[in-house]
Every structure is written in structure tokens, then in C-alpha cells.
Structures
1.
Amino acid sequence: MSEGMSPDFSALGRRPRIAVLFDRLGPYHHARLRAAAEQAEIIAIEMSDVDHIYAWDKVDRASAFSQFTLFGEHDAARASIHGVLARLSKVLHAVEPDAVAVPGWADKGALAGLAWCAANRTPAIVMSASTRHDYERRMWKELLKRQILRLSSAALAGGQAQADYLVDLGVARDRISVGYDVVDNTHFAQGAANARANEAYFRKNLSLPQHYFMTTSRFVRKKNLARLLEAYAAYTRLAGDQKWGLVLLGDGAERASVESDIVRLGISDLVVLPGFKQYDELPAYYGLADCFVLASLSEQWGLVVNEAMASGLPVLVSRHCGCAPDLVREGVNGFTFDPQDVMVLASLMARIAAVDCDRAAMSAASLDRIAHWSPARFSSGLLQAARCAGVGS
């Protein structure tokens, strides 16, 4: 189905009831689900409200959709698959969904959701951000995935690369919709505009340079921060007195290594490390930045690129990021690059920062591009997938 089509559920005599499973509901999950709740009765089920990866503050429960937490007392990753299935089954039997959307095919929650659907003859929708290249692929695992995906009736993919991988795994292309990986564009656009309107206040209080490149990520190996810092150091030599600063938001296991690299490269006075920032704090950093960089070695999608584009930034994005084919138009709103090639990234940073670069046009192009990747697209994609799965037929 094409983007934006509204499936016909008139045969149901009511709005479709869709249970949507996530490991943990974060801010961008809420944005997606609120949009979907305008078109369907949404039951959001999170495995737990804490985890060992993301330090998000808990999001207030929304009135737009029903919400259940299976393991409020601890990280669901510690629970057995039988324990997850038992708790999930209790909720799903109570709400009687027309379809269940599950996040991928590997985690306990997804497998439990697929198992429940198979046992109760309820259509399952697999939501996927995976691509062919985001991890090393082994034949036996790919064969196992194909078997698991036979339990699904339709799929909601992040973008084109994610849809192509689902086809590789045996899902019929006409049963795949697109729009899984979106953020609340309005939140970032409005927050960035507010920061620009109050630039002096925010720049002083956040200790931000007059001009800077920005990235935000966990400080872990796959984010490739060591090479990003090397590329930035090389850029500063190219730029001389006109060099921009670099703001690295985030934290993680490799923070000490990042700090050591900054000292070794002689860029301590140019790099700002504000640490991890909560959702409401992020737009100000985007709003005062001049360009966003994501140099990951592997990234299923890269939602921070959505955030940056919604904030009106040109972007430099690793070709290993799953969002690159859909979100980056070469030379229009940014550039892609090989994350292993330090000097190419350095030259692109210099190109973006050059006085003759029309960053205003690139900013406008980012805003135009990301307007097609809003929570409304998640909503239409989810409902298209439900229709493909047989809901309302």
C-alpha cells in the first residue's frame, strides 16, 4: 500500500484494536502510539519500565491509549520466556486484540507475542528496523528467522533497506508497510526554535560554542567515537582559526576512552561533553548546533538523525546506518560516508563548515525530508499492516 492510505475497517463495525509490544516505552514510543491511537484502539504493552541500556526518565502514562507493564519491578531481560509468556498471555486474553504488533523476532517479548498469536489465531505484525548489513549474518540464524517470521501475517519496516531484508527472510513485499522508525518531529522542531529564539541564554547556560558539530549516542564501540574524534581533529587542522567546536552528548562504558582520546588528540579546549541528557533537554542542543554527525559502525536505523533533521540540521551520516538511504539526500540535506575513513569525514566536516556552504538550504531540505517521517507515518503504516494481516477482512 502507498504512504498515507487509510485502510478500510468498516467490516469490523468499530476501530481496530491493536496491541503493540515494546521492551520499554520511551518518549518516541509514546509519540508513535499517540498518533496510532487517533486511528485505532491501541493497547501498549511494555515488558518492563526499567532496563540496563537507556536511562530515560519514566514517561507519564498517556490517556490516548491503554498501557500495561508486565515486569514493573525489574528488567524483563532477567525473566524466563515462560514467565514472559504467562504475564503477556494474561493481558492479551483480557484485551482480545484484533492484531498484535511485536518488536522484531529475537527478544523474549517478541517471541512470546508471536507464540500467543499462533496459539490464539490472532494476526501478528512484526515491526523491524533490521537490515542485511547491521550485523554479521550467519546462515543458520537466517534460516531460523525465516521459520519464526512464518508466524507473522504482516510487517512494519523502518524504511526501504529494512523492507528489503524482510523480503530476504521470506515476507511477501505486499505485506510490508513502512514507517516504524519515527520520532515526534514537533517536539524537536519547537524546542530547537525556542533555543534559537533565546540563543544567548541557552548558549551561556549550556556552555556551548558559537558554532559546533554535534552527535548524541551511547559511548560504546559501535558508535565509532574514536574515529569521529580523529576525524574532528583532522578537520580542525584543515579549518585553522575558523574551526567549529564539537559537542558529544551521551555517556557509557567507553567514556574514559573518549576522554583519553580527546587529550591525546589535543582537542580538549574544543570538545564539550555534557553527558547524557533527557528527552526534554535535547532540542536546545540540536537547536544551537550547525550540523549533526553520526559515525556509527553499525546502526539498525539511527533515530538521532530523525531528531537532528526535525531540528533543522544538515546531517553527516555513516553509510552503515539503516536510515541513510531514506533520510539523507547527497549534497541536498547532507552527506553519507564510510565510517572507517577518517579523512573523508574530516573533509565533509570542512565542506559543511565552509563559508560558501548553503546550510540554510540544507536545513530546509532536512525539514522537508523528515516531514514524511512523522508519527503519522507510523500510524498509517501500522494500520496498513493490520489490514494486510486480515484485520477487517
Note: The chain has two domains: 10-182+374-388, 185-370.
2.
Amino acid sequence: MNAQLVGLGWGGIFRLGLVQTSLGAIIVLTTSTLNRIMVVELALPAMLPGFLVALHHVVQLARPRIGHGSDVGGRRTPWIIGGMLLLAISGVVAALGTVLMATSTTLGTLVSALGFLGIGLGSGATGTSLLVLLAKTVSADRKPAAATIVWFMMIAGFAITAGTAGAYLDPYSPERLIAVTAAVSVLAVFVTLIAIRGVESSINLPCAPADTPQRQANFKLALREVWTDTTARRFTVFVFLSMLAYSFQDLILEPFAGLAFGMSPGESTQLAGTQHGGVLLGMLAVAASGSLAKRHSGRLLKRWVVGGCIASAFALAGIAWGGAHSDNWNLSANVFLLGAANGAFAVAAIASMMTLASQGNDGREGLRMGLWGAAQAIAFAAGGFLGTVAVDLCRQWITEPTHAYGVVFLFEACLFFVAAYLGSAVEALGSETNAASKPLRFGDVALQEVMDGGVT
């Protein structure tokens, strides 16, 4: 029996979503709250928290190794719990380092860096293992909805923690920061232990094919074998390129709204809320369509992935055009459409990871998921920064600022078009059977020469 046929019920999916909520609760404190305290209360350069946040992304290159470790052990629960424990402890260490910066910037930075390294490793271990567990226990028709649920519940963790913890942090003091961070971390671990308890053991998962212990435990050999799988390799490139495009406008959209449309800081902040509303709509649309199309969920996911990328590209082109015609262009509506396209594509990509990870039937689901998770993390780390660099470079050559931003948005649109091309080539994604060994094609044109020449 395939792992996809072993159906985890909606209650089990929501329970695993609580793990994502706990993960999001700690992440938002360390990447948002500590960032603000370093810059505002401690008057430190903004590049310092920027470096620490980037550090937590870069260390997630270890995700493939983490995923392989869970493959060898055969169980995901210990990695989820261990990762959450490391994340919780590291969150407190990062907060302690922030407090120490008030008296010694060097010592505080070193302690915080250690904390952010642990945050990256802990979130990588928990997130990767959780997605693998979902991939192995959720039926194919429920994977789009499951991806939406866990993503939405992580965002809920961001929102709930930001509101609740923020209230307890005022008036700010170092003691309050440590106490609030510790309380959130302990609560996150407690919720994770309750949520994950008995989920994996209650599902009769099929065993991986027989293999020699030496071969099974050899990470380099396992990584080489996964990378030679054309589906895994090309999907890795697709994930990196699409998520790079997804995050490229993170830090430039609000400044563009102010320059091109004369929006105030409050109005541009509301624009971000409009975009998030669109993201939620796109996510819900994917979840609903997946539940309705039970027989062809793989093909439907592929359409959402490709269609979401194409729609994102057209929305970005509209923003670029609107910058030159701001008097008669509804930027809010345009941004809402961009959010809807981004949300649909992103959650369909996560569901696709869950689908493809369990298609190999070689006991290397964790390694595959780790590989794609690492590609996503690095893309997120690079995307926002490269977007700002691209704007600065364009403004060196283009005197009109709105036109410079427009060029960058058009470049981002091109990235989405290329991502759509690569996504359409993943034929295994559109198949309801194991198609990992089939050649990947775009229409009738094989991409073997294009991708092999550029990737391997």
C-alpha cells in the first residue's frame, strides 16, 4: 500500500498544524521582536539583526542532512520534538544575547548568533520532519488542504504571538523580554508534545524497501542518488527560482507605493495587509479545489503551480505599468491579485513537495523534503536582499525612480515565467502514479539538455 493511501483524518492534520503554530510563535519573536529591540531600544545598526536573521536562513542548508537522519531512523516524531526543543532553547539564548548587547555588543552578538544558529537548525528539523510526516500520512486528495492548513496555522502563530506577547512586553525591560520569550518557548514545546503524541504510531506506515545499513546511512551516497533523480533535481531548481521570485518584492513594494503613488507610511502598511488578504484567498482556493477534485489532485496541483506563477508574473507586470500611469491605476486591487496568485502558487508548491516526496518509494522522503526546504530557505534569504540591490543598481542608470522599480518588477515577472516553464515540466506532478523515473517534458519538448547543462 502507498503511504498516500493511509489517510490521516482532519483532526490529525489540525493537530500537526498546531506544531506549525508553535514554530511560528517562536520564529516571530526572534525575527521580528528582537529585530525591533536591537534597532530601536538599543540603537544598533539595522544590518546587525539583518545578519542574524540571514544566518538562521543560511544554516538551513543542513535540512537535507536532517531529513536523511530521519529517513535512517524511520521515525519523524523524535526529530519534530527534538527540533522544537532546540528551537525553544535557542529562542531564549537569542533573547539573552539581545539583552547582553546593552552592555557588550560583541558578547551579545556572539550569544545571539549562537541562538540564531540553533533557531535555524531547530526550525529546519521540525519543519522538514513535519512535512514528511504529512506527506506519508495524508491522502493525495487532502494534500492541498493540508498544506493550506499548516501554512495558515503557522501564520496564526505569528499573529497570536505578536499580539499577545507584544502586550506583555510593554513597558519594555530586559527582564520582561527574557520572561516573555521563555514563556512562549515553554508553551510551544508543551503544545508540540500534546499535538504530536501518538499521531505517527497510530498510522500503519509502510516500511521502506530493504537496504543495507551501510548504504542507507551513507548521506553522500543518498544525496547523490536523489540528485540523479531528474524529478527531484528539477523540482529543486523550480522551488529555488519560484521562491526567489516570490520573495523578491518583499522589501521594495512599500517604498515603490510611496514614490509612485504618493502613499503615506500608514497607507503602504495597509497595502501589505491587502496583499496578505489576497494570499489567504489564493490558499483557500487551492485547498477547496483539492477537496473537490479527488481523482486528479496531482494534475490540479500542477495547474495551480503553473497558473499561480503565470498570474503572479502578469500581476507584477501590471504593477510596473501602473507605476508609469499612477493617476488611473488601482494599486490596491493589483496588489490583492498579486497576493492571491502568490498564495495559490506557494501553497500548491508546498503540497507538491508533499506529493513528490512520497513518490520515490525508496525510503528517502526526508532527504527529498530537506533538499527542497533548503532551496526554499536560501531563496527567501536571498530574495529580499537581491530585490533591494537590483533597485539600487537600476537607479544608477535610470533617473526616474518609478521606472527603476518597474524594471525590477518586470525582472521578477520574468523569473515567474521561467518558474512556470520549469513547473510545467514536472510531469510526475501531474501523474497519479509513481512517475519519478519518467522523462520530464514541456509540451513535446524534452528539457533534459536544457536542465542538465545548467544544473549538473
Note: Residues 1-199 form a domain with the Growth Hormone; Chain: A; fold (CATH 1.20.1250.20).
3.
Amino acid sequence: MKTDFIAAINQVSSEKGVSKEVVIEAIEAALVSAYKRNFGAAANQDVVVRINRQSGDVEVYVVKQIVEDVTDPRTEISLDEARKIDANAQLGGAIEVETTPQNFGRIAAQTAKQVVLQRLREAERELVYEAFTDREGDVVTGVIQRIEPKALIIDLGKAEAAMPVTEQVPGETYRPGQRLKVYLVEVSRTPRGPQIIVSRAHRGLVRRLFELEVPEVFSGAVEIKAIAREPGSRSKVAVAARQEGVDPVGSCVGIRGVRIQNIVNELHGEKIDVVQWHPDPTIFVANALSPATVISVDLNETDKTANVIVPEKQLSLAIGREGQNARLAAKLTGWRIDIKATTLPRFEGIAPRLTREESLARLTGSLEERPD
């Protein structure tokens, strides 16, 4: 054993990414099991195996109780015999008696191999779990390893993750070897090791991409208040400034749209509307329907419905293809939105954005003339 044994431990420790002490403890536990199985140890016998960390020597000890009259020599020892090992031994105490068999190294190595491997697998799994459990809610980069009917298997370096069909984006094309940024949804323990679930469809991916791409969001100068997403198609993101003088929408869009375009590219062309959040729900609802022009917003607190008036030419834009714009605006604001159009001349030439003053003026006194 000796030098080769220690070298083998060092190699396993390096290859498996676990500490040398963990490997040695796994081997010691395996050798206890091997000794009990091969050398007739009693079921209640307390066996200890120690491996010398420098030399690699293996020694087996049986812990025996010191008694006046020995009835079971496998678990008990007389005071006279105990004092031959330790002069300070006392009745009622316990002492370790070395019982290392001559051929123990060869037999134990064969018997303990599977136990050692199992303990090492458990140690590896625990390391993986600890490495990823604190990263739930983060974006990680992985490589698609293989495509299975129910999930993509993604290599994250130290571990594999699964991206179920429900977490994949409709319309995105995946292929083995492709690098992807994914959102870490969940890390859980299972009998087969840590299970890591990642997503491309989670709205948290959009939030994290903004944090990566927009320094003001990362620093907290701009806060993302809400996100509504239909993966692969369109997202709406409501932002607010937490620092005076900061333009939240402009910060997210970037000069010439560079920042938002980088996020769109990462999401493979998914459109993103960045709108300004506002504590006044009338203004927030109007902003959420961007890019459509909004004339007025009338809120019904009882059933949490927002009745919105838009110019007739803006109706289809406000509703969006298959109702998408209105649907996302409703998700973003938390209000059910009912959109109607008007053709009155007084609404012609309205500015494309509803300012706070305009909105409040229309809601507090200018809506008397609005048709039913």
C-alpha cells in the first residue's frame, strides 16, 4: 500500500475535485464495512479503521469495554489485559485493541472498492449541490450536450442541467454544441444526485439580462418594477429611476438602442418594450400600452378594470396582433384593460405620449365631453 496508496488518494482527490480528507474518510468507512464482512466481527462490535495520512499504513482497532469478568471477548476485555495496552486503564472504561489482519489490505481493497466509489459519488454530488444552490435566480452559461424528447441536457461545466420543454422558448432552435445563457430556476437533492432545472422562458431571464447589460439597473439607480413576457415573441418591462436625474427608459435602451439590442439578440429577436413605471395607475396603464397613443384612462377600482380611450387609428396598435399588446399591458400593470376608440375631432393631432398633467386633467375635468 504505502506510497502508492497515498499517491492514489491524491489522484482521486484531484480528479474528483474533493478534498484529500474526504477521500480518506470514505476509504476508512469502507474498510470498516469490509472488516466486519470478512473477519467475523460481531454485529454490535465497535470497529475503528485509521489510515496514516503520511505513510498510508492501515490499522484496525476494536473498541472493547473493560470489565471484571469477560463474557464476550469480542466486545469486552479484562482489566489486566487492558493495562498491558494502557497502564492507566480503569474498570468501566473502554480501550482500543489493534486487530489488523495480516492479509487485510488485499481483501479489504477488493471488498471496499464499490463502497469507496459510492462515497466519492456522494461527495461529488454534495459539492455540485453546494456550488449551484446559492445561484438560484442567476443567469449561467452552458453548452447543449444532447437533445432528449422531454428536455435539453445542458453542460454547465461541473454539472448537467435539464431544460424541460415547458421552459423552452417556442420558435427557438436548439442544437448540440450551442452555447446559451439560461436562467437557473431550481436546484434540488434527489437520490440520483442534484437536479438542476434551467429556463429560457422564465421572465427572470429578462431581468438578469438587463442587470448584465445596463449598469444603472445593476447598481440600483434604475429599478425594474414589473415584467410581462410572452417568450419568443414580446416582453414589456416597467422601469423607474431611484436616483435623481436618471432617465430610466433611456438608460435601458442605451445610445442608439445598443443596450436593448444586445438583450434582444440574446433572446433571439424577442421584441422588448421598455416603459416608464408610475405610481399613478392611470399614467402607468397609458405608458404600458406603448407604442399606442392613449387619450384617457378611467379606472374602476371595484373590479380593477381600466377603461382606455384611444384614437380610432390607434385601436389596432393598442390592442396588438391577436391582442398581445393589451394582454401584456394588463399583465404588467395588474389591471384588466378595456380599450375603446373615438373619432371626435377634439382628439385629432393628440401628442403620441400622455403626460402626467394631460392624464390628470382629462380624468379630473376634461372627460365630460367624452362619448359613451
Note: Confidence is low (pLDDT under 50) at residues 346-352, 359-372.
4.
Amino acid sequence: MSQIDWAILIITLTSIVIYGIYKSRTTKNLEGYFLSNRSLPWYLVLLSIMGTQASAITFLTGPGQAYSDGMRFVQYYFGLPLAMIVIAIFFVPVFSRLKVYTAYEFLEHRFDVKTRTFTSALFLLSRGLSTGVSIFAPSLVLSSLMGWNIYYTNFVMGGLLIIYTMSGGAKAVAHTQKLQMIIVFVALFITGYLAVKLLPEAIGFTDALKVGGQNGKMNIITTGFTDKGFDWKDKYNIWSGLIGGFFLALSYFGTDHSQVGRYLTAKNIKESRKGLLINGLVKVPMQFFILLIGILIFSFYQYNKGPVYFDAVTLQQAKQTVKKDSLNMLELQYSKAFEQKNMPEANAVEKTFKGVMEERCQRRNLTIPTIFFYGL
């Protein structure tokens, strides 16, 4: 990384922490810490909801999902707008009327303190594991870029997160997520623009989409039906998106306090509902755009030779093992296939190469998340 890269990274991370603490400086009581004194407008509620749902994993793995499997993953979100309507009608008024601090406080009113304690413990356990994965994703990127030990990057990322969330509470989270969403979307637009800009001169945006379509990547709507009937092993289709996506979103936004806590901070019921409903409207096109970035990147690499494996640090480590001859041979096959413009063969070699690397990671008992551009 250059000095400019370091300066941007340090200034951005430091500014987010300072801004979050500054915006929450008036938070002096329990309601202020947990609920921002129920004072946030709908647009901050919206950005906070989106920022909580769309973690770094979404933006790192979404394009990678489309790169490898096409656009059909967008169907996973088709049930979300329906769930937002149900929650806005039935859930929000109940939480607002009871003036609860958490979703689980409602369970104490409805049942008893044991039920509340049990569900709160489950939430803390599941959300702790989920947050760990969300921190691990960008930490893995920083580790690969800088050559740092993954434990150090986890410590830096998690430490900064703890500073502004512990000191500022819900208001700090809402305002910092506003900045984070802006940064992420600007970065995505720049990535998409460069992916098209760096294509050969005669190839434009529509041509890039055609290349994706010719390779089966523009499979936006799929029914799950084949010549042999319905494929029950097909994870992403219109039915799993509408039915499964609806109930998943209903449980997540209706009972998980990481989301419930966001719309409890709104000024009133109207602001809560507006934030939820607009989230339902913008989430599908947002996810569509994120996946579309993967299609543009896929098209870019049909004309530009990329590394067969994007995690350079892990690749160098793998070449120090008994697999080095196999990896070198696969790299040669990949280069030859690309030079001959035999993209089906190049893509097949790339998959084989990744398989070898994943097998090595599994033997080391490493988790293999689908990280965009890092071949895992």
C-alpha cells in the first residue's frame, strides 16, 4: 500500500469513530444510550437498518456470488418487502405502545422473565457469532493486502467497532452506519464504472451484460423446475425467495434486536414504518446492483487476464507445500487457455485451482467464506 492508501485508511477509520462519539455526546441516560431518546428521523432509521443488515460480507461476497453463480441470488430478497408490510402493520405498534427497550422485553410482558432471559441469551450468542464473521470478512481483506496476521487485523477492526458502540450507544451506531453506507455505495459505483471503463474500446456496458448472459450469469428469475420436475436442491428460485425470504425477513426484522432496536429509535410510529417500508422498496434494487457488479467483473475478466487465485498471501504459502507443483501446473494451464481465448477451459482450470486451495484450507481447519476477489 502507498502512503496515500495508508492516509485514506487511517483518516477514514479515525473519522468514523470520532464522528460517532461526537454525534452521541448528548446521550446521558439509559433511553438515550439504547434508543437515542426515540428521536431519529426515518432516513436515519432506514440507513441504520440497511447498514445493520448489509454488513461487509454483503458487499464482499455479493459480487462474488454473481461472479460464480449469476444473478439468481437476488430472488432471496423478494419476500422482504412483504415482511416489511407485516411488521409495519402488526409489530411496530406493539413495540411502540409498550415502550420497550428491546424486543425481548416484550416477551417478559407476554410471558415471564425466564423467557426474556433465555431469548436474550440466544440473541447474544447468535449475534456474537454473526458479528465475529462480519468482522472477519474485512479483516481477511486487510490481512491479505498488508500481509498482517489475521489476529491483528481482527483486533484492529473489532477494537474500533467496540470504541464507538460502547461509548456512543445507538445514536453513534446510527450515524456511523450512515457514513459507512455512503462510503460503500461510492466504492461500488466506482468499481462498476472502472469494470466497464477498462473493457476493450469496442465493448460497453450492454456488451458486458451480453457476455454475462451468454455465460448463464443473467439468470435473474428462476422457477426451480427442470425437465425432471422441481429441483428441491435448488437454493435460489422465485419460490424460495418469496416464501423462505418472507419468513426469514419476518423473523429477522421482527424479533432480532439488532434490527428491532433500529426502528425503536424513531421519533414515532410513522417514522418507524416509513424507514421499514422504504427499506423494503430499496433493498431488492440495491442487492440487484451489488450482484450486477459481479457480472461486470466477470465480463472484465473475459477480456483481461487476472490471477487464477486472488489471495496472493495464501497462494504464496500454498506454494511452499507439497502442492506447489500442482499449483504451478494449473497456473500454466490457465495462462495458456487464456492466451488462446479458450475461456471455458480457463474457467474450468480456475475452479480446479480453487478446489485445491480450499482442500488445503480445510485441512488447516479454516472456515471458507465466499469472499469476493479472494478466491475463497
Note: Residues 3-303 form a domain with the Sodium/glucose cotransporter fold (CATH 1.20.1730.10).
